[in-house]
Design a protein that fits this description.
Blueprint: E1 7-13, E2 25-28, H1 38-51, E3 56-61
Antiparallel strand pairs: 1-2, 1-3
Length: 84
């Protein structure tokens, strides 16, 4: 069981070779920005990795600060394109 926190799924964006910042960026993954339990996050994380194997994801705890992970236009339809 995962600790009792709220979690979201993020896309890991590694820097390009010519970028000065060598740290990865973590972007909200549309459709998975709503808080979930740790157990749900682990299940969704494996689902994302299976569905989009070319991308890297992580589950990240938000500890009540979900505004950092809100996407612009969150009320829009955030379904993923089939090509991804």
């Amino acid at each position: 069981m995962i600790p009792h926190s709220e979690w979201v799924i993020q896309l890991v964006m590694w820097p390009r070779a010519n970028e000065r910042n060598s740290r990865p960026r973590y972007l909200p993954w549309a459709g998975y920005t709503h808080p979930m339990t740790g157990d749900q996050a682990m299940w969704v994380l494996s689902e994302c990795e299976a569905h989009w194997p070319a991308y890297e994801f992580r589950a990240h705890t938000i500890n009540g600060d979900e505004t950092r992970f809100a996407l612009p236009g969150l009320s829009a339809d955030w379904t993923h394109p089939a090509e991804l």
